[in-house]
Design a protein that fits this description.
The complex is a heterodimer of chains A (393) and B (380). Chain A contains 12 helices and 11 strands. Chain A is of the alpha+beta class. Chain A folds into 3 domains: 82 residues, Acyl-CoA dehydrogenase/oxidase, N-terminal domain (Butyryl-Coa Dehydrogenase, subunit A, domain 1); 108 residues, Butyryl-CoA Dehydrogenase, subunit A, domain 2 (Beta Barrel); 142 residues, Butyryl-CoA Dehydrogenase, subunit A, domain 3, CATH 1.20.140.10. In chain A, the strands form 3 sheets. Chain A has a 4-stranded mixed beta sheet. In chain A, helix 8 runs parallel beside helix 10 and helix 10 packs antiparallel against helix 12. Chain B is of the alpha+beta class. Chain B folds into 3 domains: 109 residues, Butyryl-Coa Dehydrogenase, subunit A, domain 1 (Orthogonal Bundle), CATH 1.10.540.10; 107 residues, Butyryl-CoA Dehydrogenase, subunit A, domain 2, CATH 2.40.110.10; 147 residues, Butyryl-CoA Dehydrogenase, subunit A, domain 3. Chain B contains 11 helices and 10 strands. The longest helix of chain B is centred in the middle third of the chain and has 37 residues. Classes of the chains: A alpha+beta (393), B alpha+beta (380). The structure holds flavin-adenine dinucleotide. Flavin-adenine dinucleotide sits at the interface of chains A and B.
Chain lengths: 393, 380
């Protein structure tokens, strides 16, 4: 058992720090925070990472990955958060990219991987449907074979950032005769294809990130199908496990804990800093203890992945604890803001206009944060998975 | 031992329930909060006609002579319907301050107009640094002849946008957090030197930061005694707490019922999600949360008229703690059990949750009241 850093690791850490120091991550984050400049900010930032070769470090080196060790990934993530640097948008780089290089053919790799790496293509994830959320396998968007094409009909919902997307990766039904999990195929669909419409869904934090995507007789070349027809479920499942480790966000939570510490030493209650308040100290350290455990839980999973063991049901644990901790942090932050936690500012309006600098963002984070226990497979579903696969119940 | 409503209270409850069920809707509420002042002035007139603006005031002041239970009955229904109204700031805070502390002539004139729906008021009690402390007051007022001169800033004043008048807490002596030395002054909203910066809260209500620059007000506009404003403030807030907890209970009850209904109709894995035992238990917890809150509310209603002040204070703190904690649980669970739908702006659930959250932060959150309770239960 050893968690200390080697001298190579320390050198790597210096390199990461130097990169973030020069890359102006705060500027990018500012653009990203404003819905009007969100996409621009994200793309600019990812192009910078790509130049450095760090936009998809976890990919195999032959496809453009950095070949980092688990320790290096950990260092990078820690430094990224410390530097207030944005995370990459996951849909291309963390979700469909790995599916394409693992299950796609050479032609597909050549067509799609470069656009993902250089962020010229924006991807979105078309899995969920109005009738198929937790029970994803019951999806009914149909793809009917016609010559070299599929004709796709149906609706996807909760599609994050579909309004910006050039491409959508979809699970569609190519066969309805067998078990629901069979007969699902994995298609890559150009969002500019005639017959696709995107309608916005406003969410409770006042932001438009969710959409409904409708398909009406949309022609998709069969060449855009990943792997075998009817095997889409298998491909998607390997991806879901990966997605769940992404959701744990340990480094972000550590950062938040730190921010909370600073806010609490500044904010007063009855003339006393809140950091001296007994119940605040109790709640804060409760979260801290959980996060200390989660950090090592994550490192254990990452170490197993480095030994090429695929993240199985353990990734469900990370998702459950990670999101619970995020929500506890959001709750404590908004309560620190008192009634200022209810303030709704206009887009881009500084908190100084109301005399409070974190109430508005605390509210947004709290509200949107409620979704973290719902998406990526709800926490109830994760517990069902653990009960079945780990506990054998 | 009798937890039944009187015939009059039953009638009030029926009329409020009828209003929420028939005249009001979530769609109307969403429209109303778009209004400049955050509510529909027409609705306020309707409230006046129904006699609801008079509920907390004594008969000798032209009121209905209602007690804490009457208010509970009304507020619970307003909560169920998520009714956007300045009832709390205008009636329960501003109006009750006048009743508790204004001189007889002022009281008679202003309460009549308030009850008739012709006057809007606000209580400017909060400041940037004050958080949950009522008596952390730095806005200053000094005497100049037979006038007070006010300068400072009040934060997030509810209903400031619509208010014709403010009751303002000011420091007339003592240091920043002293209970003694706080005075209440009645100020015309149009008085020279007052400036409003309008802000929206997540529950749709409009509040404002109100700046006072050498605002002059006659000394006969004192509400309560000079330096003793805390007495009035505390009395008024202690009456408002069960009222907003009753509203919170209405919100929680609606959220619980809506979630139960949704779980019966939403199907996944070929069955209604309400058939999953793990979700059933969670909804039982939501229901229990409502019952606990209701029980503590009854406890407070029973001690409200009694002489044992210490006991009543403890009950109030306990009520705010439970309403805060259980309200959070019910809010979070109702979003969670609705899945993606719970995150949408279109569904009413998120809006009920936001109102609950705002009420939690008003007059002290659960942590704050738990510590206040500890001081009384475990004196050092
Ligand atoms: C902010 C956000 C972003 C999203 N982004 C995307 C995206 O980009 N692409 C995409 O495809 N999807 C996306 N989703 C969809 C997400 O994956 C689904 O919301 C999720 O799978 C839940 O499905 P549902 O909303 O239909 O809820 P339901 O499945 O209807 O679930 C409702 C409730 O029932 C519970 N439940 C259901 N089944 C069981 C069971 N067997 N046992 C116990 N409890 C159960 C759930 O946990 C939940 O609490 C997003 C969702 C959100 C909220």
């Amino acid at each position: 058992m050893d968690a200390s850093l080697s001298s190579d690791d320390l050198k790597f850490r210096e390199e990461v720090r130097a990169f973030f120091h020069n890359a102006e991550p705060e500027k990018a984050q500012q653009l990203i925070n404003n819905p009007r400049t969100y996409k621009q900010g994200a793309v600019q930032w990812q192009k910078k990472l790509h130049e450095k070769g760090w936009v998809a470090p976890f990919w195999p080196t032959q496809y453009g990955g950095a070949g980092w060790t688990v320790t290096q990934s950990y260092i990078y993530e820690t430094e990224r958060v410390k530097a207030n640097a944005p995370d990459v948008v996951p849909f291309g780089l963390k979700m469909v990219g790995p599916v394409i290089y693992t299950y796609g053919n050479d032609d597909q790799k050549a067509r799609f991987l470069p656009g993902i790496l250089n962020s010229d293509d924006w991807w979105c994830q078309g899995y969920s449907e109005p009738g198929a959320g937790s029970d994803l396998a019951s999806l009914t968007t149909r793809a009917v074979s016609e010559g070299d094409d599929y004709i796709v009909n149906g609706s996807k919902i909760w599609t994050t950032y579909a309004q910006y997307a050039d491409w959508i990766f979809c699970l569609v039904r190519t066969d309805a005769s067998g078990k629901p999990q069979q007969g699902i195929s994995f298609l890559l669909i150009d969002m500019n294809t005639p017959g696709i419409t995107v309608s916005p869904i406003q969410s409770i934090n006042g932001v438009h990130s969710l959409n409904e995507v409708h398909f009406e007789n949309v022609h998709v070349p069969k060449a855009n199908r990943i792997g075998e027809e009817g095997q889409g479920w298998t491909y998607a499942k390997s991806l879901l496990a990966h997605e769940r480790t992404v959701i744990a966000r340990v480094a972000d939570s550590k950062k938040r804990l730190n921010t909370l510490r600073q806010i609490a030493s500044r904010e007063l209650q009855g003339g006393q800093p809140i950091i001296e308040d007994a119940s605040f100290r109790h709640r804060f350290t409760n979260i801290e203890v959980e996060l200390m455990a989660l950090e090592y839980m994550e490192l254990r999973v990452l170490a197993a992945m480095a030994r090429n063991e695929s993240p199985g049901a353990e990734s469900s644990l990370l998702k459950i604890k990670g999101t619970e901790i995020q929500q506890a942090l959001h709750e404590l932050t908004i309560e620190l803001a008192g009634i200022y936690g209810g303030v709704v500012l206009d887009v881009g309006e500084p908190g100084s206009s109301v005399g409070h600098d974190f109430g508005d963002s605390a509210r947004k984070d709290f509200m949107y944060g409620r979704a973290s226990t719902i998406f990526g497979g709800s926490n109830e579903i994760q517990k069902n998975i653990i009960a079945k696969r780990v506990l054998g119940l | 031992m009798n937890f039944n409503l009187t015939e009059e209270q039953q009638m009030l409850q029926d009329s409020a329930a009828r209003f929420v069920g028939q005249d009001y809707s979530f769609e109307r509420r969403q429209r109303d909060v778009q209004n400049d002042v955050g509510f529909d002035p027409e609705l306020w007139r309707q409230f006046a006609d129904l006699g609801w603006l008079s509920v907390p005031f004594a008969e000798e002041n032209g009121g209905f002579g209602g007690d804490a239970t009457d208010l509970f009955v009304l507020m619970e229904q307003l909560g169920k319907g998520l009714v956007a109204t300045p009832y709390l700031p205008s009636i329960l805070l501003f109006g009750r301050c006048l009743e508790a502390g204004a001189n007889p002539a002022l009281k008679a004139e202003l309460l009549e107009r308030l009850i008739a729906g012709e006057l809007q008021g606000a209580l400017a009690y909060m400041e940037r640094q004050s958080r949950h402390e009522l008596f952390d007051v730095q806005t200053n007022a000094h005497r100049d002849g037979d006038e007070f001169v006010i300068s400072g800033e009040k934060a997030l004043v509810m209903n400031a946008q619509a208010a014709n008048m403010f009751v303002v807490s000011v420091r007339t002596s003592g240091s920043a957090t002293d209970k003694n030395g706080v005075s209440l002054l009645l100020v015309d909203a149009k008085a020279p030197g007052i400036e409003l910066n309008s802000i929206q809260l997540m529950d749709g209500q409009k509040v404002a930061n109100v700046t006072f620059r050498d605002v002059r007000v006659s000394t006969d506009r004192l509400i309560g005694l000079e330096n003793q404003g805390a007495v009035v403030l505390e009395e008024v807030v202690n009456q408002a707490i069960p009222a907003i907890c009753a509203e919170a209970l209405g919100l929680m009850t609606h959220l619980t019922n809506t979630t139960i209904e949704y779980s019966k109709t939403r199907k996944q894995f070929g069955v209604a999600i309400g058939s999953f035992q793990v979700l059933q238990h969670r909804m039982v917890d939501m229901f229990t949360a409502c019952e606990e809150t209701r029980s503590l509310l009854y406890r407070v209603l029973c001690s409200a008229g009694e002489d044992d002040l210490l006991e009543h204070k403890k009950n109030l703190h306990a009520l705010k703690v439970i309403t805060g904690l259980r309200g959070k649980r019910v809010g979070n669970e109702s979003i969670q059990l609705h899945g993606g739908m719970g995150i949408t702006d279109e569904l009413d659930v998120g809006h009920y949750v936001k109102r609950l959250m705002v009420l939690h932060s008003v007059f002290g959150d659960a942590d704050y009241h738990q510590q206040q309770l500890a001081r009384l239960s475990l004196p050092q």
